[in-house]
Amino acid sequence: HDGLASWVSRLCSTLSPIKFSPVLLRCTRWPGATVVSYNDKFANVYIGDGHKDQSRFVPPPLPPLQTEYAVEGGAGNIKDVTEQSDPTLAEETAFEEERRAREEEQQEESDDEEGEGGEEDGSDT
Predict the structure, then answer these.
(1) pTM of this prediction?
(2) CA-based nearest residue to 56, from 4, 20, 124
């Protein structure tokens, strides 16, 4: 594998004498594969995605940054976004009352139309 050692070793602790320090082995071909050894005991651990080392991997370039939000005008022209202040509580209440009044008028008109149509049908018999 390009002249590199398959395993890299190092001591786990530099505080204790070499004789009493556990040894850590790391695999260079399979990232995430490690072995810890102390005297005649050892433990193997692999935490990885199952792919060999791809040291030559180059990620694809990132897409261009997103532009600021803009509203398109006629013929593809971009206009700046205009900010508006929020309505006051009184303005919201007035708007809701107008909306309810319009809905009630529409409901009354539709009830009147249904009532007139029903009377005409009943008078023919």
Answers:
(1) 0.40
(2) 4
